[in-house]
Design a protein that fits this description.
It comes from Phytophthora megakarya. Keywords: Metal-binding, Zinc, Zinc-finger. This is FYVE-type domain-containing protein. The termini are far apart. The longest helix is centred in the last third of the chain and has 57 residues. A hairpin with a 3-residue loop joins strand 2 and strand 3. 37% of the residues lie in helices and 28% in strands. It is extended and about 95 Å long. Helix 4 crosses helix 5. The protein has a domain of 139 residues: START domain (Alpha-D-Glucose-1,6-Bisphosphate, Chain A, domain 4, 2-Layer Sandwich). Strands 1, 2, 3, 4, 5, 6 and 7 form a seven-stranded mixed β-sheet that branches. It has a two-stranded antiparallel ribbon with strand order 8-9. By secondary structure, the protein is of the alpha+beta class.
């Protein structure tokens, strides 16, 4: 579920880049139900998506976790097309045809390491152009195949969260509108042995990497490169970079509770927004006080000039 949930424009871009679902642009038009710390996966919103087959969709999306009569937890993700007069199609202006879709995906965890995914849906085409239909089918096939990559997206988001925590920056990139900056952590002292397997780095000591999560020096056998996606400062571009992580951090990230990570993300994001709101209120109070003081000073000067004028006239 952690890899399936995307509640903001930035989160959708990161998710689409990671799972390669064919979305080239998207926008959260309206939030109906926002996630909470108690239920960070529950989200209801109206979204617009543009796919690489020159077809866009406006849909009502909802994600969350439900419980069966046997108390089994089932994650769900539903997207169903909706129509609003305020959101007309762009076929005449941009040549983008508005399509209809209805997709439902369910996630059932069978074991601690196995999650079953069930997906069913349909896409409605109105065009008679055979080439456009072929391109649309290819885009739909890519979207169906992307469900298997949501696990990789979940792991990537956990690794990014660990990097932020270890570097002292806990601002979330899924729920916050401000772009966080990574503060560089000083690398750990270079040792002559791997921090995981204790193998020697060799005579020259060059056969090692630095884990971007724990900053320990490890050998090349005990680390692997993983794709990391973050939003660039322009808030539109997604940066893709491969970073080295040790096997210990990879295992810890894979086994960490996605629900707790999502809660920590949301809590830190809310704390950040509350701090920004408090600062804005303080600035507003200071501005009002300064304005009132300036107004009183001007009125005092005017009254003083009036008294001087009356005094001179009386004289």
């Amino acid at each position: 579920m952690y890899g399936a949930v995307a509640t903001t424009d930035e989160a959708i871009r990161i998710k689409s880049t990671c799972i390669q679902d064919g979305i080239i642009d998207s926008k959260v038009l309206h939030d109906l139900v926002q996630p909470t710390v108690e239920d960070p996966f529950h989200h209801v919103s109206v979204k617009w998506r543009l796919y690489n087959n020159q077809r866009d969709y406006v849909s009502l999306d909802t994600t969350g976790i439900a419980h069966t009569v046997k108390r089994e937890r089932i994650g769900y993700n539903i997207s169903h097309s909706v129509a609003f007069a305020q959101i007309p199609g762009m076929e005449d202006t941009h040549g983008i045809e508005r399509g209809n879709m209805s997709v439902c995906s369910l996630y059932l965890q069978k074991t601690p390491t196995i999650v079953e995914c069930y997906v069913r849906g349909f896409f409605d085409f109105h065009t008679q152009n055979e080439m456009v239909n072929t391109m649309s089918l290819q885009a739909i096939a890519a979207q169906w195949a992307c469900f298997a990559r949501k696990r990789d997206c979940s792991l990537m988001k956990k690794l990014v969260w660990r990097m932020r925590k270890s570097s002292g920056c806990t601002t979330s990139v899924s729920l916050s509108d401000d772009r966080p900056s990574f503060t560089k952590q000083p690398p750990a002292p270079i040792r002559n042995r791997c921090a995981v397997c204790s193998r020697s780095f060799g005579f020259l000591g060059t056969n090692h990497k630095t884990c971007k999560s724990c900053f320990r020096q490890v050998c090349t056998r005990c680390c692997s490169k993983q794709l990391v996606c973050i939003v660039a400062p322009d808030q539109r571009t997604v940066l893709e970079k491969k970073r080295s992580f040790c096997s210990t951090c990879l295992a810890d990230a894979a086994n960490s509770d996605a629900l707790e990570v999502a809660r920590e993300e949301l809590a830190s994001s809310k704390a950040y927004h509350e701090a920004c709101a408090a600062k804005a209120q303080e600035m507003a109070r200071t501005s009002r006080a300064s304005f009132m003081q300036s107004a009183v000073s001007r009125r005092s000067r005017i009254n003083s000039r009036s008294r001087l004028s009356r005094s001179s006239m009386a004289a």
